[in-house]
């Protein structure tokens, strides 16, 4: 009887493990979907707030956290540059854009002098990011890309830099 009871426990234990694995595999896509939905809602809110700040100088002043004096029109351009950058990051985060595709979009943005000024003016903002975060790594990727674009003597900017390997 003890042997049968032990065998039954092993079968029940194996069944529970199998059931847990199936449940996890079914819930993983749902969890990823919930994360994408939450990121999209956060992105929409961020964009709405940036639009309000671009439209209203009194609100633009709230986001003035630069280390030097930046004229109002330039601040509004910086807010738009931030919106473009965050939009590209959002598409990457939800899986709609690979890291290589993101790199291509950032390379185009890096061609614009106003975007480069924005990037430099917000360098101190990125210092607060945890070095283990994806946003920190993507910021370093942008830093390197802008440096490579600046150092390049080629007119073929679209081939400057080496797109990153896709993480496994």
Automatic annotation (TrEMBL):
This is DUF6082 family protein. Pfam families: DUF6082 (PF19560).
């Amino acid at each position: 009887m003890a042997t049968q009871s032990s065998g039954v426990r092993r079968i029940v234990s194996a069944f529970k493990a199998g059931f847990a694995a199936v449940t996890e595999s079914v819930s993983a896509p749902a969890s990823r979907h919930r994360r994408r939905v939450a990121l999209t809602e956060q992105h929409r809110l961020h964009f709405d707030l940036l639009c309000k700040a671009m439209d209203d100088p009194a609100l633009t002043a709230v986001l003035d956290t630069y280390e030097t004096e930046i004229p109002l029109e330039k601040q509004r351009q910086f807010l738009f540059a931030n919106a473009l950058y965050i939009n590209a990051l959002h598409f990457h985060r939800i899986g709609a854009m690979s890291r290589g595709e993101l790199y291509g979009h950032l390379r185009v943005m890096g061609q614009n002098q106003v975007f480069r000024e924005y990037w430099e003016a917000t360098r101190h903002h990125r210092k607060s990011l945890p070095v283990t975060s994806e946003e920190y790594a993507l910021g370093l990727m942008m830093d390197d890309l802008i440096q490579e674009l600046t150092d390049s003597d080629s007119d073929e900017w679209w081939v400057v830099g080496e797109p990153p390997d896709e993480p496994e």
